[in-house]
Amino acid sequence: MKDYKGRILIVEDERSMREVLRILLEEEMYEVTSAPDGEAGIELIKKDIFDLVITDIKMPRADGFEVLKKVKEISPDTIVIMITAFGTTESGIEAMKLGAYDYINKPFKIDEIRLVVKKALEKKNLSEEIICLREKVQSTYSLENIIGKSPKMLELFKLISRIAPSNSSVLITGESGSGKELVATALHNLSQRKDRNFVTINCATFPEGLLESELFGHMKGSFTGALYNKAGLFEIADGGTIFLDEIYEMPLSLQPKLLRVLENGTFRRVGGTTEVKVDVRVISATNSDILGSVSSGTFRKDLYYRLNVVPVNIPPLRERPEDIPMLIEHFLNRFSAGRKKFSPEVLRLFMDYSWKGNVRELENMVERVVLLSDNEVITLDDIPEEILKAGDELKHHYDIGDEGVDLEQIIEKMEKDLLLKALEKSRGVKTEAAKFLRLSFRSFRHRLYKYGIK
To answer: Which of 187, 263, 299, 368 is deepest in the core (most CB within 10 A)?
Structure first.
């Protein structure tokens, strides 16, 4: 498939002029469609989406002003360039007042056409980049921006570096707040697609009908509120990467359409009749048991295997406490420009805390204490009660006070907690859970019976 730089519609009643423009623009690697008059051009605009329309002003059946009006009504993101005869500059200026990007006088120079079209499409591409960043504006991430020095994170870095240059689909798993979008961004920025769009969407934030339109686009009038043609995120991501967060929330009715894109790179817009071909790498993520959704029938098995060509799991923060001091230093520099620091007691408390919300929870907590503390050194007095309470419980379990401790009770509680965590980590597979605890299956099963764990 040719790597076209944009889709252009030429509306011109003079056949020779139409052919000259078509040949010129195709040489510049644009995908060109043409129409012999305004009415035919309007019909094409109703049926398809174009990046740019070049239209003559004076034509039979429907003139250039009518074409311009229809483009702005049906597909407002499409850029329009008007062609006007020599000596009728006023018409071109009037067209620009009505929304045209620019006008060109006949007879025109070849270089002039090339330059105007190039600048017009650069403007459109810039607008699309703004769409790509609509969920949050942030600087481009690279692998080095994923912070960690623990063995688990170093293995993650190696895996990202190895798979980033490929076009294979990646399924990122990890708890909420663990940094799945950060990993997806690193995969894009380390790939050959880094100069093209990186588009993100959270599948859980859109109702079913709207999600289909967001992903695949729609044609004017295809549903209530569809006032104009709209390109979907897959079209915007063409040549680049799309990140589908919380993929398990995708409605079952949409899953065959996503599967088709993964298999052959084609889809139809909502209300459309023409096939759209794209080259997009798909990276998806989930913080839930997607295999459970496959088993229950709410997520297609064939789609799961297409998405999960390369699995990437992000370890929770509690499994890599050695990364916490480095993360704290990073967040202190961000929120206080390095003017504040943690006391050793606070640092130790934060390293012992479970951080169920992972890196995001740690980041929010550092921001909170920096904002509320007037001290240069943040002490235990600046730490919220819920963190201190958790630390006191942990201390109570391991410190022997004057009154002594119930060793058997503490050991039983720890053993039961570890059994439950192993089962959670193995998704209920008992043989795997036993391996995590380095127990024989018989011994593991005996302990489950002992504590009444089903």
So the answer is: 187
Q: What is the CATH number of the domain that holds 337?
A: 1.10.8.60
Strands (E), 106-195: 170-173
Domain termination site, one of 252, 280, 313: 313
The values of phi and psi at residue 264, to 5°, are: -135, 5
Count of beta carbons in the 10 Å neighbourhood of residue 272: 18
Residue 42 lies in a domain: yes
- The token duo for 157 is 């870095």
241-245 and 281-286 beta bridge pairing: parallel
Q: 195 CB contacts (<8 Å, ≥6 apart)?
A: none
2, part of any domain: no
Which one is predicted more confidently, 143 or 180? Answer: 180
Report how far apart, in Å, the C-alpha atoms of 447 and of each of 191, 419, 431, 434 are.
48, 8, 13, 10
Q: Domain holding 247: CATH number?
A: 3.40.50.300
Segments forming the whole domain that contains residue 189: 143-313
pLDDT-derived band at 130 (thresholds 50, 70, 90) equals low
Per the confidence metrics, is the pTM higher than 0.70? no
Q: What is the largest distance, in Å, between two alpha-carbon atoms of the chain?
A: 101
pLDDT confidence of residue 41: 94
> If pLDDT is split at 50, 70 and 90, which confidence band does 451 have?
confident
Q: What's the start-to-end Cα distance of the chain, in Å?
A: 55
Q: Where are the beta strands (DSSP E) in 298-381?
A: 310-313, 341-342, 377-378
Say whether both 290 and 432 belong to one domain. Answer: no
Q: Would you say 308 and 248 are in contact if contact means Cβ atoms under 8 Å apart?
A: no
At residue 88 the predicted structure's pLDDT band, cuts being 50, 70 and 90, is low
CA dihedral of 269, 275, 276, 282, whole degrees rounded to 10: 80
Do 265 and 158 lie in one domain? The reply is: yes
